[in-house]
Amino acid sequence: MRAPGRRRRMLCAAAPGSRELIMVKKKKVILDNPAIDRALKRIAHEIVEKNTGVADVVLVGIRTGGDGIAHRLKSLLEQIEGSEVPCGYMDITMYRDDIFHAKTVPEVHKTVIDFPVKNKIVVVVDDVLFTGRTMRAAMDALMDLGRPRRIQLAVLIDRGHRELPIRPDFVGRNIPTGRGDLVDVQVGESAGGDKVVLAPRPDKDKLSK
Q1: Is 0.70 surpassed by the pTM of this model?
Q2: Are 46 and 205 in contact (CB under 8 A)?
């Protein structure tokens, strides 16, 4: 018989040869609406400071997680600087290195970038940075549109477990996670408010960030 109030925890073995164990746990809110607001405001100020303003800055949100965050950053940057910041949205599905290994057909979304990226400081925006493979695909996609002067990366959550040498320039929050955990970012999706939820292990065939 378990002691009263004690949580029940379940562990499942990782892949053969790995020492990592995956803990199956209940969903947990790790960032609420005010915390997300503070993180995005800080990122916006850091973008202005790093680039000495926003004269040559454009935002490109990676669909589908980064588009809502990019829109929020656009509003914040325009409030800070008082000038318009171009913002577009890019689908990188066909540039992924794991697209042909997925067991399901991935959904392809529309890319909407109606401004030039050549010689611009392109801030690529995403919700979660994980393995780095999404960002590698995003850079390949951007190069097909033009040659930016500089590419920077802004993410709300950096959860670690990088497989490629990619590091964000602007981070809302670094959150230690198990490799099998799911970080669910909900920005502008429901009337319940924005939040970031740490959830149990997702479908292992889900494409990684």
Answers
A1: yes
A2: no
